[in-house]
Each structure stands twice: as C-alpha cells, then as structure tokens.
Amino acid sequence: MESSRSPRTGRRHSLLRAAAITLSLATAAALAGCASADTTTPSASKQSAFKPVAQKAGSQITVWADSTRLPSVQAYQKSHPDVKMKIVTYDGGADGSTYLQSKVQLFDRTGSGWPDVVFGNPTDVTWASEATKPGARPFAAPLDEKLVPQSTLDGFAKGSLTPCQFNGHTYCMRNDIAQVLLWYNKSLMDKWGYKVPTTWQEYETLGKQVAKDHPGYLVGSVGDTNSHESYFWSGQCPAFNLVKPGTLRTDLADPKCTRMAKLLDNLISAKAIATQGFFSQGFAKNSGGKVLMAYGPSWYGQYLFKAGFKTPAKQIAAAPPLAWQGESTTATGNVGGGVWMVSSHSANLKASSDLVTWLTTSDENQATAPTYPAYTQAAKAWLANPTNRDYFANDVSGPFEQAANEVWTGWSNTKFSDSTAWSSVVLPALTSGKSLTETLPAWQQEIAGEAKTQGYKVVDQ
Predict the structure, then answer these.
(1) From edge to edge, which strands make up the β-sheet containing 180-185?
(2) Phi and psi dihedrals of 341, rounded to 5?
(3) When you count CB atoms within 10 A of the terminal residue's CB, does the N or C end of the chain come out lower?
(4) pLDDT at 14 over 60
(5) What does pTM read for this prediction?
(6) Residue 182 β-bridge partners
C-alpha cells in the first residue's frame, strides 16, 4: 500500500500484516508503510540560506524509488527523454527500515554516492533534514529555497506538508495522504434502516445496536498495527506531540485519549469492534463479509473492501470523519502517505526538483496513482478518474476532500515509528483480554522509552 500509504506510502507506513487476502504484504507495506507518526510543527526561525554544490546542467540524476512508484518515475523518463536518469528500486523507506539512513551515513563518510531523488516516508525526513555528522550536509535539500515555487507548495492539502517541515524549511513534497474517514456498507445500512453516524457518540450507539440486532457484524477493528492512527489520532490524543524540537509530549491520561479508549472498550465488550485486525490471518475469509462499518484511511475502499474482502461494487460508501458531539471542530487521522526528497548533494537540482514536482503535482501522473494525492488539484483529477470512483455506492469526492483538510497536525512526525509501541504493548494486551483503558499507562511508558532512546526529552503535560 502506498505509503506510504499509500496506502501509506510508505505511515506509516507500514504496518499491515496482510494474510489470507489477495492484498499482498508488499502492497500493504507500500500503502501504509509510510504511516509512521506523520506531523510536526516547524520552528518559527529559519536556518541559514541553502548553498547548493556546484551545478552541472544536464547531468544524470539518480532516482531511488519503491516498486509501487517505479512506473511513475519511468513514465516521467519516457515523457522527458532529454533528462538523463538512472533509476534504482529499493524498499522506499518502508516503516521501520533504516536502509536509506544507513546508506546516507555511509555516503557522508565516503564523500560520494548520494542519490539525487528518493522516495521515502515521513520518518526519513526527521533525520534527512539534519546533518548525520558534524560538517556534513543534511541529506534533504530545502525545497522552499528557490527549488520549488512557494505557489506550488501552497497547493497541497492543509497540513499535508507539515511532516516535511523542520526549522522553518520544507524538505520534502508529499506524494499521497491517507486521510481517515468513515466507510460503511450502504446496502446493509439501507436494508436495516440504520442512519450513518456523524458523531462519535452516534457511532458508539449504532455499534451497540448492531451488536444486538445483528450479532457478528462489526463497525470496526483495533487489531491492526496502525489502528491507533485511525482512532486515537482522529481523537486528538497527544500520544506523539512535539511541543518543540526535541521535546515530545506523550500524555495518554489526557481526556481526549481516555474518552476514545472508553468508547472503543465499550464497543469491544459489545463485540461490535474486533480485536483481530482486518489484515490478520483468516479475517477476510471468516469476517470480511460482516464489516458493516470501518473507520480508516482513504485506501480502505479499493484495497480493503474491494481487493481484500471482495465486497461487490456499489455497496461500499464513504462518509466524512466523525466529530465529537458538542465540539465545533472535526479532526481526523492519517494512515500512510509517502514523500519525495531532493538531495542537497545533487549537481542537477533543476532536473531533480522538476521530477519531484511532476511526480507529486501533475495530473498526468497523479490521476492514475494508486492512492489519493496530497496535491489538491491533482486530487481532483484523481477523483475524476472513473477507476477511483466507480466501485463505490456514493460520490466519495466530498468525504475525501473534507477529510484531506482535517488531518490533525498534533500527531507529530518523530524519529521512530508510532506503530512499534502499539504493536508490542497494546495489541498483545487486547489479545489477552485487557481493556484499552487499563493498557494506556503501559502504552505511554513504551512510547516514552522509545523517544528517549532517540534523544527526545519526554513530558506528559
């Protein structure tokens, strides 16, 4: 899945354990593998101006891309025959992978070998925006330093470039986003006379009613390695909140965390939400046909319901993100989304920047992309493509566009994956019968431990 994505992309990304469904693990990793913690707040002050290395017009650029994005890079090469390119396929910075970082550290030591353009996940930007050793250049070039017009950068969905921003500069361009929204089986909802919920309170009430009226049917799952990004990120839980560079707030005792945990516990107890993951072994075969609703990323429609559960066309519909009753603002999460970076070592920054701009913003490329583009105008072209909409029972354009601009930026892009603690602590606890509420302290302790090993100061308020 694109992350990474896309479904991520890389959130992130990656993260799914697909088994017993036709959606392969490699595809799943590409989509969600980039789904690691996905936003941070840049500091107000900017560092000194970027100084390019000596430029050589027309020189060959080396591009590292994952297999999902490879056809796009090849399409650019075909449509721009004058641009000399060497294309290398690698894992694309799949979530948890340190391959790119290790390679850059090696190149920094030897003084050569850096690729000009790379596809990666937001976690990669956290180290690529800083020098790997004293005297070295940060790997990623600041694109806002006369490499990409500000008008282009301003064209991305609200907050979607936040994971790219450090020290007042923008170090990457977002390939895609995986905004979370509400998926539901319209055929069954209409048949049973259920109203699509618009608030979390209505979602909980309906879930309990479904469990009573139609035992075995589900309104969600918390059992995948990034389920927390759908629920707790959407709930504005400060699990991964960079209050300033180098200081991470993780406070799972916050009311916005505890209320989401309680809601989910109630639905788990009612057997309306599964603790087995959608992508876990046997789920598609045994329960895929009984998923009435699912709160998850924009790629769920094509890659979970269509490819995984084999749900027939014109049954699955999308609705906007849920809001908390009585609150004026709606926020949602993100499960995936990859990024493109240009190397500060590139001797052909013009060709490198042009490539990254085309990959992320052009209708020519993005209209047929696997997942929802982060660039607003390209997203409209993507939505206009019948391939991306004909499967659904409603027009998904409105819910997709709304959710794309409501991703909460308080869930920060960190140097470590947000999925590790959830997978190692929370999922085993749920399997053993513990509640989310009683597991919150252990989850927080694990996050804090990971953060400290990465050099973060950790606070809980």
Answers:
(1) 293-297, 180-185, 316-319
(2) -120, 145
(3) C
(4) no
(5) 0.90
(6) 295, 319
Per-residue pLDDT band for 98 (boundaries 50, 70, 90) equals confident
Averaged pLDDT for residues 162-189:
96
Q: What is the pLDDT of residue 12?
A: 36
Residue with token string 């936040």: 162
Reading phi first (left if > 0) and then psi (alpha if -120 to 50, else beta), residue 12 is in left
Residue 80, judged by CB atoms within 10 A of its CB (0-12, 13-18, 19+), counts as middle
pLDDT in tens, 100-156: 999 999 999 999 999 999 999 999 999 999 999 999 999 999 999 999 999 999 999
Assigned token pair, 55: 């430029």
Say whether pLDDT at 1 is over 70: no
| pLDDT at residue 93 in the model | 67
- What pLDDT does residue 97 have? 74
Cβ count within 10 A of residue 402: 16
SS (H, E, C) 112-168: CCCCCEEEECHHHHHHHCCCCCCCCCCCECCCCCCCCCHHHHCCECCCCCHHHEECC
Nearest to 406 by CA among 193, 235, 253: 235
d(CA 235, CA 158): 18
Can you tell me the distance from the alpha carbon of 349 to that of 169, in angstroms, rounded to the nearest whole number?
17
Closest to 217 (Cα-Cα) out of 194, 237, 242: 194
In what helix (H) or strand (E) does residue 32 lie, and over which residues does it extend? helix 25-32
What value does the CA radius of gyration of the chain take, rounded to a whole number of Å? 21
Mean predicted confidence (pLDDT) in 357-378? 97
Burial of 385: CB neighbours in 10 Å, binned 0-12, 13-18, 19+: middle
Residues pairing with 273 in the sheet: 220
